[in-house]
Task: structure prediction
Amino acid sequence: MAAHRQPGHGTPMNPSFAQMRHSLYVIACAFALSGPAFAQDPAALELAAARMAVERADQADADQYAPGMLANARQQLEQAQRAAQDRRERKQAPVMALRAAADADLARALSEEAVANAQLQQRQAEVARLQRTLATGEGR
Result:
C-alpha cells in the first residue's frame, strides 16, 4: 500500500517500504548470521518474529495508545525467552513467542486505529470549519 500524504503535510499516514527497508535489512542479516542457530533451535524463529512484532508496536506508539496490550506482549516475550533457555520448558517457547507476537500485533493495530481516528476527527473539524466559513461568507 502506498503512503498517502495529507495536502500541506510532509508526513505519510502509512509507513512506506523505504521506512521498513532498514528493519527488513536487519532481519535478513540476523537470519544470515544465525542460520545454524535456527536449525538447532526451533523456537529461535518465533522468538525473532515476536521481537520484531514488539519493535513494530513500539514504533507505532503502542505505549501511548495500547500500553496494557504492549506490556503484556513484552512480558510474554520475556517468558518465551526464558523458556527457550530452560531445557524443561523449551518446547513451550514457540507457543509463548507466538502469543507475544499476536499481542504485539494487536497493540500495533490498536495504536494505528487510534491515530487514524484522531486524524479523522481533525479532518472532520477542518471540514466543519470550512463549511462555516463558506456559509458566513468570511474570507471574501
Notes: DSSP finds six helices and no strands in the chain. Residues 93-136 form the longest helix (44 residues). Residues 100 and 136 are 54 Å apart (CA to CA).
